[in-house]
Design brief:
This protein has no helices and eleven strands. The protein has strands at about 5, 10-15, 20-25, 30-40, 45-50, 60, 70-75, 80-85, 90-100, 115, 120-125.
Length: about 130
């Protein structure tokens, strides 16, 4: 069992930066691929980024490529999402998710993940 807690959301203006954190419980964090998803009001949850268990491989949605960076610190059981050049369309609840996996693929579907956090809200004003 893995419990995930996101933090770092907030309200900011377009063009700004924000770093989200996701703290995981348990001693097996390094065996999980970790993903970030987001869900805007009235829309489906969508993939943002994923990082392999080792941190050596990352994938991003086209909408955030070049602006967002996913990283992880396994000794701290934490995954991060650095968000730069934020746009109003980035406004959403952001969720981290964990998938038990030593292999790495483009895990961009909600049903590919085993555990989810409760989310943190990001609002970008124009």
């Amino acid at each position: 069992q893995v419990q995930l807690v996101e933090s770092g959301g907030g309200l900011l203006q377009a063009g700004g930066s924000l770093r989200l954190s996701c703290a995981a419980s348990g001693r097996t964090f390094s065996t999980y691929a970790m993903g970030w998803f987001r869900q805007a009001p009235g829309k489906e949850r969508e993939f943002v980024a994923v990082i392999s268990w080792s941190g050596g491989t990352t994938y991003y949605a086209d909408s955030v490529k070049g602006r967002f960076t996913i990283s992880r610190d396994n000794p701290k059981n934490t995954v991060y999402l650095q968000m730069n050049s934020l746009k109003p369309e980035d406004t959403a609840d952001y969720y981290c998710a964990a998938r038990k996996s030593y292999s790495m693929n483009y895990y961009d579907r909600v049903d590919e993940y085993d555990y989810w956090g409760q989310g943190t809200q990001v609002t970008v004003s124009s």
